[in-house]
Amino acid sequence: MPTWIIEPHDPLIVRDGRPFGPDPGVRAVSLAFPLPSTTTGAARTCAGLNAQGQFDPQRIAAVKQLAVRGPLLVELDENEDVAWYAPAPSDALMLASEKQDDTLAIRRLVPLALPTGATTDLEASYSLVGRRQREKAKVSGQAPQFWHWNRFEQWLVAPQDDDALRASDLGLAGLLRDSRMHVQINAQRQTAKQGALFQTVGLSFTTRDRRRLALLVEVAQPFPHFAGGMDSLAGERRLVTWRQSAVQLPTCPAELREAIIRDGACRVVLLTPAIFRAGFRPERLLRPAYGVAPRLVAAAVARTQVVSGWDLQVQKPKPTRRMAPAGSVYFLMLEGSPSARAAWLDAHWMAVVSDDEQDARDGFGLMALGVWDGALQAMGEDDARS
Predict the structure, then answer these.
(1) Which Pfam families match (predicted)?
(2) Is the pLDDT of residue 25 over 60?
(3) What is the pLDDT of residues 40-70, one digit of tens each?
(4) Does residue 361 share a domain with residue 236?
(5) Cα separation of 167 and 109, whole Å?
(6) Do 187 and 80 have their domain in common?
(7) Which among 97, 123, 218, 266 is placed 20 to 30 Å from 68, CA to CA?
(8) Are 240 and 351 part of one and the same domain?
(9) 78 lies in a domain?
(10) Residue 255: beta bridge partners?
(11) What's the CA angle centered on 276, arms 90 and 310, to 5 degrees?
């Protein structure tokens, strides 16, 4: 499948849901990271261009069928080689260190067995996710939003606690935000309108030490009449460069594959936000497939995100819907034979698992897999009192 690198040259404005009208003092604030709908819409625009470089409205229905995976954050070096990033997994608890530098302590969150007599408001089939013992340290405010892929892969294969982990070695705190003040211009006089100031806040794809960041997407088919080059993306049509790349999405580590097949259990980690009909709970992911009947045991899901947008085909706003954010972790039991588990794993590594087929084609719910032994950990005495 063709893979494209989208490198912004200006800070991108990917709007949140706050109003941005013609009122003085209004602010256009960006999300922390572009949603799949932003890059998928741009990719489908490229796919719908005709030989003259204009978008053909007659191709709207066709390009909506184009499947896109991403976006993922990448770093580019002087040779255009790619270094991957992944969203921070929600089963990694980052605690502040007593030191004054950027040292963190990382703790693994696991499904827990309740003490005798304890109850929760969860369904009986679901377990809590947490620590076996109470942690006295506070949650760190320096926890990276994006992990280097090698660190992320280590967490998928062999998650371990660590008391001396530097935040800068783990990944990026997040994309830098670029704030700019603007003034409304009187079209007739070409002068500034008194008091009509407004602000935009965009996402910078350059780090403080001048490293180049970009977005990467994989599309199901080549673009008929677009070979790359300069284009615009997101709010205010900020400039980006599209370049096709030979790089492919990361493959499943052999030791991870062997462990999941052996243990009959796994973690699912969302690399992009997912849209599920039942809120946090996936439906498509839990359907029997390839001889495996997945069973959801527990989930670590951060605060809900929302998505809307504009439907170009019907010229109306899209409905606002809730999403399970990127980094959410689902603990599954895989009931089936080892050969069936192998087939299921191969089909689901880097698959897109939103419930609705169109949401999946749009790139919502890209996932990776991690190891889990399938066991519930006993809560410690401190946990039972808290």
Answers:
(1) Cas_Cmr3 (PF09700)
(2) no
(3) 999 999 999 999 989 988 898 899 999 999 9
(4) no
(5) 19
(6) yes
(7) 266
(8) no
(9) yes
(10) none
(11) 105
The CA–CA distances, whole Å, from 309 to 76, 107, 318, 376 equal: 30, 37, 5, 41
Residue 73: other Cβ atoms inside 10 A: 25
Contact 151, 87 (CB under 8 A): no
263 shares its domain with 322: yes
One-letter-per-residue 3-state SS of 301-338:
CCCCEEECCEECCCCEECCCEEEECCCCEEEEEEECCH
- Locate 170 and state its tokens: 């783990």
Same domain, 288 and 222: no
Q: Give mean pLDDT, residues 142-147.
A: 93
Q: Name the most confidently modeled range: 11-20, 219-228, 339-348.
A: 339-348
Q: Are residue 199 and residue 286 in the same domain, yes or no? A: no
Q: Give residue 327's domain range.
A: 254-371
Q: State the total domains in the chain.
A: 2
- Asked if 218 and 298 sit in the same domain, the reply is no
Top mean pLDDT of 57-71, 155-169, 229-243, 354-368 is at 354-368
- Say how far apart CA 278 and CA 223 lie, in whole Å: 35
Residue 369: both structure tokens together: 């897999």
* Per-chain mean pLDDT for the chain: 89
Give the C-alpha distances (Å, rounded to integers) separating 234 from 10, 50, 57, 132, 203.
Answer: 11, 21, 19, 44, 11
- Number of C-alpha atoms within 13 angstroms, CB side, residue 39? 31
Structure tokens at 352: 């897109």
CA atoms within 13 Å, Cβ hemisphere of 334 = 31
**What SS3 state is found at 347?**
helix
Q: What is the pLDDT of residues 285-299, one digit of tens each?
A: 999 999 999 999 999
Residue 130 pLDDT level (bands cut at 50, 70, 90): very high
Sign (positive/negative) of CA torsion 201, 38, 81, 238? negative
What does the pLDDT average to over 78-87?
90
Q: Is-contact 206 212, C-beta < 8 A?
A: yes
> Is the backbone of residue 350 left (phi > 0), alpha (psi -120 to 50) or beta?
left
Q: How far apart are CA 226 and CA 219, in angstroms?
A: 13
- Dump the DSSP string for 235-289: BTTEEEEEEEES--PPPPPHHHHHHHHHHTEEEEEESS-B--TBTTB-SGGGS-B
